[in-house]
Write a structure and sequence with these properties.
It is a single chain. By secondary structure, the protein is of the alpha+beta class. It folds into two domains: about 20-200, no CATH class; about 290-420, Heat Shock Protein 90. The chain is built from twelve helices and five strands. It has a five-stranded mixed beta sheet with strand order 1-2-3-5-4, covered by helices on one side. The chain is rod-shaped and about 125 Å long. The chain starts with 18 loop residues before the first helix and ends in a 12-residue tail after the last strand. It comes from Gryllotalpicola koreensis.
């Protein structure tokens, strides 16, 4: 199984300018090794030769070897500077130990690289603090070690050490802060681009989920209603086939008509889902004017429906479609699950605000019919009503008989935005 594509892979980031810069960006470890070799190795050799040949220090030959080893050990901080810049800074400062005892002070530049690394890989504040600490500590150390150190180097007195080493630290701070700020700014831009890409993908996913829910709701409204009517008509036709052939034939014609209507509705939805080259079959959505025909169809199937409509619905296509679907779902469920109802009441009260839509039947108590569906109808109906700012309730009566479906819809529906849902 192939891994899912990363949401960040399609970020169209500009390439870094320069072949050399791109090479070092791809080979960070190689860059650190080369810095350690070409910076640390000369400093180590110069320190060792200076200590061995100098006649002004209190260190012997073995002390010179130990001092050179300290310089070598300090170069290990270069390998830590990207992941642990504070620890790397501390390790690099070890190179200051032999400085007062040499004639050249070649290893004093190694801690300067530690200050640069703090600015680039930690923060500007950490770099300033680190520079201040190493400047103060090294000045005190030079002052204490000056009686035992070399006399021909600028680092044997604090008055000479402070400006020279301080100037080196300021240069490292200036370069490190510039590089670090640019690095952090680019990282922030890339992170923001990744967040935007992630939000874009999330919005696309939410839109796909919402569209999938809408399609499922519309599919249920068309297919479930039509199939329920067709099954009922087919059962009635089978019972009447031997006693009343004309009635059975009429029922089967109604089955065919209902199937054609279902196919037409399915073609309309599939046409909308098809490619841009496919022309969708344009047909108006059901409105309040289609309710009497819907009620009459269910009456023909044997439901004792009492239909009552008070007031006029506002001319809002979404509201009229919602009222139609509520009545359709209520009557479909009554036909499918209600046992021996003597009354199926359909009430649409459009005089007030909110508009009330009620479908109520008095099926026999204690005779529940197991649901053959997944409950998608009521869920989709609730989503449709909620999208208009209304409420939906359903359930059995207190005595366990029949089923009650009621919706309250505002006269001026305000569709909820995606953010509020």
């Amino acid at each position: 199984m192939t891994a899912a594509p990363d949401a960040h892979d399609d970020l169209r980031l500009p390439r870094q300018p320069g072949v050399v810069r791109r090479f070092w960006a791809r080979h960070e470890q190689l860059a650190d090794w080369l810095i350690a070799i070409f910076w640390g190795l000369p400093a180590t050799l110069i320190t060792l030769i200076s200590l061995i040949t100098s006649s002004h220090t209190a260190l012997g030959r073995w002390g010179a070897v130990i001092a050179a080893l300290l310089v070598v050990a300090s170069c290990a901080g270069i390998r830590l500077r990207r992941t642990r810049p504070v620890l790397a800074f501390g390790v690099l400062c070890i190179a200051l130990i032999p400085v007062p005892f040499t004639d050249t002070g070649a290893s004093e530049l190694i801690p300067v690289f530690g200050v640069y690394s703090l600015a680039v890989y930690r923060s500007n504040a950490a770099a300033w603090v680190g520079a201040g600490i190493v400047e103060a500590a090294s000045t005190l150390y030079v002052w204490l070690a000056s009686p035992f150190g070399a006399a021909r180097t600028a680092s044997h007195l604090p008055a000479q050490w402070v400006p020279i080493f301080g100037f080196e630290l300021l240069i490292a701070l200036a370069i490190g802060i510039t590089v670090g700020n640019r690095k952090r700014y680019l990282a922030a831009l890339i992170d923001r681009a990744r967040q935007l890409a992630r939000e874009r993908d999330q919005q696309a996913l939410l839109a796909a989920v919402a569209e999938r829910a809408r399609i499922a709701r519309d599919m249920h409204d068309v297919v479930s209603h039509s199939l329920t009517v067709m099954v009922t008509l087919a059962d009635g036709s089978a019972l009447a086939a031997q006693t009343d052939a004309a009635r059975a034939a009429a029922a089967m014609r109604q089955v065919a008509d209902t199937g054609r209507e279902a196919l037409s509705g399915m073609r309309q939805m599939l046409g909308v889902l098809g490619s841009d080259r496919e022309e969708a079959t344009l047909a108006p959505q059901p409105t309040a004017a289609d309710l009497p025909r819907l009620v009459e169809r269910f009456r023909e199937l044997g439901l004792p429906i009492a239909f009552r409509s008070e007031g006029a619905l506002p001319e809002d296509p979404a509201l009229e479609l919602a009222v139609y679907r509520i009545v359709q779902e209520g009557l479909t469920n009554a036909l499918r699950y209600s046992h021996g109802p003597t009354r199926v009441e359909v009430l649409i009260d459009a005089d007030g605000d909110p508009i009330a839509v009620v479908v109520d039947d008095d099926g026999l108590p204690g005779m529940p019919t197991p649901s053959v569906g997944a409950g998608r109808g009521l869920i989709g109906l609730g989503e449709r009503v909620a999208s208009l700012g209304g409420t939906l309730s359903s359930g059995h009566h207190d005595n366990g008989a029949g089923w009650h479906l009621a919706a309250a819809l505002p006269r001026n529906p305000q569709p909820r935005s995606k953010e509020s849902t």
